[in-house]
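User: Okay, second chain of the day. Same drill as before: sequence in, structure tokens out.
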Amino acid sequence: MRLILPLLTVLTFPATAEVPRVMTDIPPVQALAAQVMGTLGTPGMFLDKGGDEHDLQLRPSQMRALAGAGLVIWVGQELTPGLADALSAAGVEALALLDQPATRRIDYAGGGVNPHAWLDPVNAKVWTGLIAERLAALDPGNAAIYRANAAGAIGGLDALDTQIAAGLAPVAGKPFLGWHDAYAYFAKAYHLSYLGGLSEGDAAPPGAARLSEVAALAAKGGVACAFPEAQHDPAMIAALGPVKLGAALDPVGSLQDPGPDAYARLMQALAKGLTDCLAP
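Assistant: Same drill. Structure tokens below.
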């Protein structure tokens, strides 16, 4: 599938007020915030390149960046519990995107909210609007800029969504397995046959019962492809049996450089990884 990055429309006007210093948790959130801010500022990010968001712990320099932030935009404590503790101690203004009523949420089969909600493009659009409104409230002199940039970004997300849906349509019926249960939002958005993760939670290793269940399914030919993940050892998922292995996926985009197009690159990389393995 040939990938084409959507055009990111960013409008700029002369700044008339102090722009808040913005910090974010992970690349897709940083990308959305960067599109909304445009040339007014570049949001920082706490997750290091190649890092695991579930184990995020702030270094002293990052704690100083947190304390000096005018706004922290993050998914929520379900994704980065270490950041939740730091935010509580710092007492800075924060926008927890997963907690917003307009966010579409999916629960894990065993209970609890699945936090990987950025993989639903509808949530990405909702979050873009929420970020713009929070920044507009903090910086009313630049409110028109934030809102105009958000409108342009949402148009780009619409185009991205259409492109990915068309590319994934031919493999919609092919059952696939991930390393951990990170892809429910992506699969629901694009009507994919997703079997869940080898590990059914975020940080916990797969249990014996789950390993046995998946191995039996694989033996019957019920798994078209299984996908390792960038931050995890692929040995366990490679040992499932007669299952075609895809390239390691990166559901948070932790191996990519941050920037306003990082969300599009993340979503397109996931689509490409799936189609490369699932397509005939």
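The two ends are 13 Å apart (CA to CA).

User: Thanks, on to the next one.
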